[in-house]
């Protein structure tokens, strides 16, 4: 098989707290679509996407893993065999940022402590941008934009390759996040 005909297949998991936009990110990446209505993921959804990287065909099996606490026991089963990960939090909900460490630790335990390429994603950049300049006292409880430097700090803490702010709604930086992970997997 010649080098330009090589096909690489990778299992990646998209993990994080409920309602951070994991499903929306994968749908934006795979089908370039976005749905406004939130529908809770039950267990796991798997979508496939093929892309070209350096004249190589890369097939990503994107596992959208439910973030709800009650899926905790089975969630680790879905992590097994993951070769890459997208750890996602909501740029407007600090509680989801604080959960990143727990999701990271669960992932590492499930894959036997191996180091795999990870991208930290702060999603809902469109909403964060809308909140710039709004008096924090006027925001509803639990809603507070997370500064980019906090994302960079978390990236260092968990050993992610990059921190990328995305908007599944507009598509901003979504392709970049998945492509960066795929490039690291090919290397």
Break the fold down into its secondary structure elements and pairings:
Layout: E1 7-16, H1 22-31, E2 44-53, E3 56-65, H2 72-79, E4 84-90, H3 94-110, E5 118-123, H4 125-131, H5 148-158, E6 162-165, H6 174-186
Parallel strand pairs: 1-3, 1-4, 4-5, 5-6
Antiparallel strand pairs: 2-3
Helix pairs in contact: 3-5
Descriptive report:
With 187 residues, this protein is an alpha/beta fold. It is built from six helices and six strands; from the N terminus they run βαββαβαβααβα. A hairpin with a 2-residue loop joins β2 and β3. α3 runs parallel beside α5. The radius of gyration is 16 Å and the shape is globular.
**Lateral arrangement of strands in the main beta sheet:** 2-3-1-4-5-6
Q: How many strands in all? A: 6
What's the CATH H-level superfamily name?
A: P-loop containing nucleotide triphosphate hydrolases
Q: Taking Cα atoms only, what radius of gyration do you get, to the nearest Å?
A: 16 Å
Alpha plus pi helix count: 6
CATH class reads Alpha Beta
